[in-house]
Amino acid sequence: MSTNVNFLMSLLYGLTLLSSCSEGKSTEILPTKNSTLIPVVNANEFQELVQSSKEPIFVEFSVMTGCFRCNEMRPQVQQLKTNLQGRAEVVRMDFHSNQTLAASLGATVCPSYVYFSNGQPLWVQNYPSSGGLLNNKVLQELNSHSNTQSENRSLEGSTSF
Predict the structure, then answer these.
(1) Could you say which DSSP state residue 120 is in?
(2) For the chain (length 161 residues), average pLDDT per consecutive 10?
(3) DSSP state letters, 29-91
(4) Residue 153: how many CB atoms within 10 A of its CB?
(5) What is the pLDDT of residue 80?
(6) Can you name the residues that pair with 149 across neighbouring β-strands?
(7) Kind and range of the H or E run holding 142
(8) pLDDT, tens only, 35-64
(9) DSSP character for 96?
């Protein structure tokens, strides 16, 4: 019995992963008045942003329509963008148009999220996920980076004899 339940759960999970990310039509959740749209960037804009940004970059690989998981996460990522205002850049890339890039970064299903700092990907979070988990991971990285910078400034300010 346990083997059958595990098999069925695995099958349902697999079907759930395969059932979305279609290119069909759906309604998209629009941001509220007080929020800022998350920019959708193409591969060239993405490369330039990663290379030139002084701030960390949080990238969402998703599809703009037809994916219930992407639609479910969109307001949570929008809230994350609001929380990170001035501390990290948040952008969105079309998963279908950038599948090779997404796969090279470890983004295997939409939506997937990649966090960059100093031009390097630090971590990838594939769906299933939540806004709270993403927020905690980003804040942990920002705090870790902030602590490292403080330690470096302390070391630079001290002199050894």
Answers:
(1) E
(2) 54 47 45 67 95 96 93 96 95 96 96 96 95 95 75 50 40
(3) PPPPTTS-PPPB--HHHHHHHHHH-SS-EEEEEE-SSS-HHHHHHHHHHHHHHHHTTTT-EEE
(4) 10
(5) 96
(6) none
(7) helix 131-157
(8) 578 999 999 999 999 999 999 999 999 998
(9) T
Bridge partners (DSSP) listed for residue 124: 114
Q: What is the pTM of this model?
A: 0.73
Q: Answer for the pair 28, 71: CB distance below 8 angstroms, yes or no.
A: yes
**E strand or H helix at 157:** helix 131-157
SS3 92: strand
* Structure tokens belonging to residue 107: 């983004």
* Contacts (Cβ under 8 Å, ≥6 apart) of 62: 70, 73, 74, 92, 93, 94, 95, 110, 111, 112
| b/e 53-88 (16+ beta carbons within 10 angstroms → b) | beebbbbbbbbbebbebbbbbbebbbbbbeebeeeb
